[in-house]
Structures
1.
Amino acid sequence: MKSLLISFVLFAGTLQAQVAVRGETVYTMAGAPITNGVVLIRNGKIERVGPAASVAIPAGYKTLSAKVVTPGLIDVRSALGLSGYLVQPHDQDQVERSSPMQPELRAMDAYNPREALLAHVRSYGVTTVHTGHSTGILVSGQTMVVKTAGNSVEEALVKPEAMVAATLGSDGLTNEAGKSPGSRAKAIAMLRAEFLKAQEFEKKKDKTRDLRTEAFLRVVKGELPFLVQVHQAHDILTAIRLGKEFNLKMVLEGCAEAYLVLDQIKASGYPVILHPTMERAGGETANISRETASKLRAAGIPFAIESGFEGYVPKTRVVLFEAGMAAANGLTFEQALSSISIDAAKILNVAERVGSLEVGKDGDVALYDGDPFELTSHCVGVVLNGVVVSVDKK
Amino acid sequence: MLRQLTLLVPLCAIAQPVAYIGARIIPVAGPEIADGVLIVDGGKIRAIGARAAVTIPANAKRVDASGKVIMPGLVDSHSHVGGPAGADGSGPIQPEVRVLDSINVRAASIQKAQSGGVTVANVMPGSGHLNSGQTLYLKLRDGGIIDDLLIKLPDGRNAGGMKMANGSNPRRASPFPGTRGKAAAMMREQLIKAQEYRDKVKAAGTDASKLPPRDLRSEALVEVLEQKRTVHFHTHRNDDILTVLRLAKEFNFKVVLQHASDAWAVADEIAKAKVWTSLIVLDSPGGKIEAKDVTPENAMVLDKAGAPFGFHTDDGVTESRLFLRSAALAVRAGCPRDKAIYALTMAGAKMLELDERIGSLEVGKDADFIVLSGDPFSVYTKVLQTYVDGVNVFDRSNEKDKLYQTGGYGASHDELDFALIHGPEEQ
C-alpha cells in the first residue's frame, strides 16, 4: 500500500511538471506549420503554441527539442491492450465466440494497460488509441478511447464507451453447421431483427434490464456509432443500406474496395476508418490498394488510417508507418499526418482533447529527428498528458 | 508482367546492347557511382562505370536514367511466392518432397515480388515440420512454366536448398515431436540413416548389384551431408539457434539460420560458427511467443559481432513489395547503410551460393537490376523497373504492372494472365 501511494504521488508530481517542446517545424494540425515553434504545456494541458520569437519559455520548464514536432498520434482503430503480443489464450480478449452478437461487452473490462504493444506504439509517437473488441463475429462488442499510458484503464481512459463494433462480409460469418450467421443476408436479417427489438424495448413499460438490448438501443438511438468492418464494395453498400434504414450513426471500417463506391460512401455521409495501407491482400482484402487513402481524400470523404488487427506477425502495425505509406502513394505529407491526428480525433469525437496542438488540449506531443514518415527517421521523444514518457534512445 | 509467348524472352534479351545512362549506380561491389552508365547485352552486364569512363557501343540503345538509382536486383533468401507446398501432415520429416512439384509461376505473388524489385527468391515449403522438403532458388523471370524460372547448376541439378525447422512450429501431436529434445533426436536419427545409406552406396562402388534400393529421403539428405544442398533452418529462440549450430557441426552440413529472432542474444556464437543468418524485420515484436524478442536491431548487433547476415521477406509474412523497407527499418535501428544494401543483394546471393552470377553489378554477371525513383531507403521511393537477365519484367509505367505494385481490383488474381492472352484487347 505504501509503495502504491508513493508511485501515485510520483505520477501526480510528474503531471504537475511544465514542459516546453521546441521544433524546427511544428505541425500543429490547426493552421499552417510553424517554423521554429514552441509548445508550452502546463499541468498536462497545452498552454501556448507559437513561434519561438513570440513564445518565451518560462523558467523552470523542462525543454525538449527536435527537428519535427507533431501532435501525439492517434491510432483510430486497433485491438491494442485486448489482443496481446504473445497470442496465447491468456492474452487474447478481443473476440468472444460463444454467440454471434455481444454488443454488451465493454472494452474497459478486458484492457491490459501494461500490454507490451502499447509501449511499442507509444515509442513511435502514438499517444491515443481507439481500441476494443475487434473483428471475427457479427457484433463483437464495444470499443473505447484510451491514452497509451496509465497504470489502470481508468487512468488511461478518454472515452469509456466509444462505439459498437460489427463485422460484415465473410469475416463476420460462421461456418459451423447449425449456427448463424452463415451467409451475408442472414447476418443483415439478424441485425435488423435486433434493432427492431431494441426499438420495441424502448416502448415497453417493463424495463427489466437486458444488457444486450440496451446496447443495441444505444446504437439505434445514435448514442453509440455502429462501427462496421466491411471490405468488399457490395458489402459497403449493404452497410450503408442498413445504416440508413435505422438512421444509425455509422462508421465504415476497413473498406478495401472503397475506391469502387466512392460516390455512395460520400453520399452516405459516413466517415471511413481505413485499413492499414500495408495490410496484406487476401480474402476480403484481395483487392486492397495503397492508393485508397488518396482517393478518399480526393472524393472529400472524411477518413483516418488505422493499425487494424493482426493475428500473427507483426502483432500490431504502427499508424505512423501506415500513414507514411499513404503519403508515398498520393496523399500530401500533411494530409497523411491529419489521418493519424486531427482527422482521427474528429471521427472518434475526441477532438476537443487530442489531435492537434492547440491551447487547452491535452499535452500530447511527438518529436522526430526528421520527416516522421521517413523509414530511417526516429521518434526522439513523446509527451503524454504533459508527462515526458520517452526520450531519444540513441 | 507475364508474356504470352515465353519464346519472346530470349529474343528480347539478345537483340541489342542497352546502355542505361546517368543514374546513381549502387554496384554493391565497389563504391557508388554518382553519374554512371550500365551496359547490358545478351542478358549479361557488359560494362559499368562512371559516364566518362565507359564507352557506349555505337549500336547500343540509349536509355536516359538520370535522376534514377540503379542497384542489383534484390535476392530474397526466404520466400513463399508462387504458393509452394511441401510436406503434408503424415509425418515430421519429408526431405523427398520438392516445392518444384507445387509452384504456380502464374501466381500474382510472383508478379508482386517483381514489382518490389525481387529478382531471385529462395522459395520454400513451410516451417510446420522438422524437415518440410526441398526449396528452389528461382529467377523471377516472366514464364509460363516452372522450367522458365529455374536456375541450372553446372551439374545439371536445379539450384535449391533444404528446409528444416525447430522450436514450436513443428511441435505437434504424434507422429510429430512433442518436445525440443525429441525434435533434435528425430532429425539426428534421419540424418544418421542418410549417412548409412551414403556409405552403402559408396561401398557398392561400380557394382550395381550391391547398391541399396533407392530411397528418396536418404538421397535428398545425402545431398545435405555432402554440402550440395544448403539447409535453411527456421529457428527463433536463442537456444534453438544454438541447437541448429550443434546439428550443423555434428553432420557437417551447410546451414543458413532463417529468421533467428533472438540472434542479438547469441550473436557471438553465430559469428564463431561462421554461418549466414537470414533475418526478418518486423514492425512489432510478438505474434507468437518465440518472436516476442525479435527486433530490427538484430542486423546492427550481428554486424558488430562480425557475423554475416542478410534479410528476407518470408512473403507473405512480410511482403516482397516491402523488401527494401525491411532493410530501411534495420538502418533506422543502427545497421550501417552499406551493410543493409549488401544484406538485400550479395548476402542472399552468397547464402544461395549464386554469388558468381548475381548479387552485384559487375561485368560478366547476370543483368539482374532494378531502377528506383530515389534513395533505396526512402519511403517515397518507387521501384520503377525490374530486369532479370536483362529482360524487363516490371515497369511501373505499364498500368497492369502498376496494379501489382500498388494493389487494386484484380491485383491478387492469379489467373490474370489468361485475361491478358485471351481478353478482348489482345484480339
2.
Amino acid sequence: MLEAWPPPIFDPAGPYAWPITTLSWVLLAMAAAVLVLVVVALWLALFGSQRAQAKVGGTKIIWMAGIALPVVVLTALLLYGLWLTSSLSDEIEGDEMRVRVTGEMWWWRVAYLDDEGQPVSHDANELHIPVGQPVVLELESGDVIHSFWVPRLSGKLDMIPGRRNLMRIQADEPGVYGGQCAEYCGGPHALMGFVVVAHEPPAFARLMIERTAREQAPAPGAASQGAELFQTTGCAACHRIAGTDANGLAGPDLTFMGARRTVGAGILPNNTGTLMGWIGNSQAIKPNNRMPPYPVLSREELQAITAYLEMQR
Amino acid sequence: MGDGLQPALCILLLAVVTLTSACAPPPEAVTETALASAERGKAAIERVGCASCHTITGISWPQGKTGPALDGLERRGLIAGELPNRPEVLAAFVQDAPALVPDTAMPAMPLTDREALDVAAYLYEIGR
C-alpha cells in the first residue's frame, strides 16, 4: 500500500507542485504539436504533389523549420519554464518552520528544528506540517544518495552525503500525501516510502506542543513486560524511545511509533498485525533491510513488544 | 419433425426452470457468504496488510513469514488447529482471532463484517 505508488504526478496539492504539473502539460502539448508537424511533413514528402515534395525537400524549410523554429520555440519554452517555476528556487527567507530530513538506507530520519536549528522532536518516515504555509526541509543523507519526493507537494531533490540541500513544501488542504525515494539507493530502495500529514494550523500547533513535551517526559508503559523486552532482546541497540534507556540511533526513532500511519517506512498500514509481522520477520516484507528477523521471540514476547510500541504515541 | 422438436423443447424448459429458480431468494444464512466477493476480499487483504505475516497465493508483496502460509485453505481440516473450517467461522477468525482462539499470536484486524466474509471468500478461492 505504498502511498505514492504509482506517483500521483498530475495531481498537485500545493504551490510548489502545481508549476511542475503545468509545465509538464505544456511540454506534453508542445511535443504533440511537433509530432503532428513532423507527421504532416513526412506525409507530404511521401505522398504529396511534385510541388509539395520539392518544398519539403528544399533548403529553405531546413533553415526555417529545422533551425529557426526550434530556436524560437525552445527559447520561449525555457523562459516560460523558468518564469513558471521561479517560486521553486526563491531565496529561502529563514523564518519558515524547518525540519531536517535525513535519507538512510532505507528509511527517513526526521527532526523538527527550533529557531536556533536545534532538534526539538524526533520521528521517522512521517512528516507533520501545517497547511497553507511553506515548510523548509533540510535534506541530508546518512549514507548514499537518496532523493526526497512527495509528488503532490514538490519536485524531487537529491539528498547528498556531506551536503545540506534546502527545499520548500506546502500543502493547501489537510490530508495525507505519499512520498517515495526517487534515487536508486540499493537493496529495497523501491520500498523506501514516506508520508506527509498536513493539519490545520491549530491542530498542528497542538501536536508539536504535545510532542516536544513528550520528548522530555518518561515514556508510557515503562513498567510493562514489553518495555523490559525492548531492552533485553536488543531492540534498544538500534532504536530510540525518548524518556527511556533505549537510545540507539542506527534505526528509526520509535518515540511515536504507535501514532505513526505506516510500518516499514511508508509501505504498510500501521496496525497490530503488520507491526507484529514486521518485528517477527521484516526481511520477508522488506528484503535486505537492516533489521534482522526475530524468530527467537515467543508468541507472548512478540505480543508484549508490539503492545509496548503501540503505547508510544 | 416431432423428433427434432423434442430436445429443443427440453432445453427451453431447462432454461426456464434455471432462470426462474435463480430469481427465488436463497435462504438467509446462505446469502451472507454467497454474496461475499473474493475480488473485494483481495483488496481488503492488501489494505490491512494480512500478507505482513502470511504468504498468500495471488498477493505478490509482501510475503510475510511470521504466520503460516495461507494456501489450500479450502481443503484444510481446522482453522488455527481448532476451529471448524466453515466460511462464517473463518470470517470471524480473520476479523478477531483472539476472541475465538485466545492463545493465538494473531491479533484482531481492522476489517468490517462484510470485508471479513470477503477475505474468507478469497482465501477459499485461492485454494481451489
